């Protein structure tokens, strides 16, 4: 499985990757991007199975990234990992095509439970 982790904080990208490995994705290949524009470049270079994106980032935020992917008819599995998880944001994320939103702080169990609920095998 190839996983693209998009966050403007390198430390947060590393935390997400560590938590994903502990959740059961220890054999995954992880790709990192600082913002949506960089994520689009990576997505154009090869197949990605899962995108985990922060919501607020410079250049292109996570919602803009998701909407751009869906406008291209790219149905890659997409979820948000963000500090902002209001009901309105969850609704907006789902309406835009996200499969889930995990609020920070999170644990490996949050990822495991979320992936199980949407049918992703670890």
UniProtKB/TrEMBL annotation:
Residues bearing PTM 4-aspartylphosphate: 54
SUPFAM superfamilies (alphabetical): CheY-like
Pfam families, sorted: Response_reg
Response regulatory domain ranges (all copies): 2-119
Gene3D superfamilies recorded: 3.40.50.2300
The entry's keywords: Phosphoprotein
Annotated protein name in UniProt: Response regulator
Organism annotation: Ferrimicrobium acidiphilum
């Amino acid at each position: 499985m190839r996983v693209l982790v998009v966050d403007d904080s390198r430390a947060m990208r590393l935390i997400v990757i560590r938590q994903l490995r502990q959740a059961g994705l220890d054999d995954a290949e992880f790709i990192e991007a600082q913002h949506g524009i960089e994520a689009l470049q990576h997505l154009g270079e090869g197949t990605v199975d899962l995108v985990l994106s922060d919501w607020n980032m410079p250049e292109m935020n996570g919602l803009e990234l998701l909407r751009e992917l869906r406008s291209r008819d790219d149905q890659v599995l997409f979820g948000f990992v963000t500090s902002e998880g209001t009901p309105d944001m969850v609704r907006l994320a789902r309406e835009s095509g996200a499969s889930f939103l995990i609020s920070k702080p999170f644990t490996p169990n949050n990822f495991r439970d979320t992936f199980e609920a949407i049918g992703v095998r670890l």
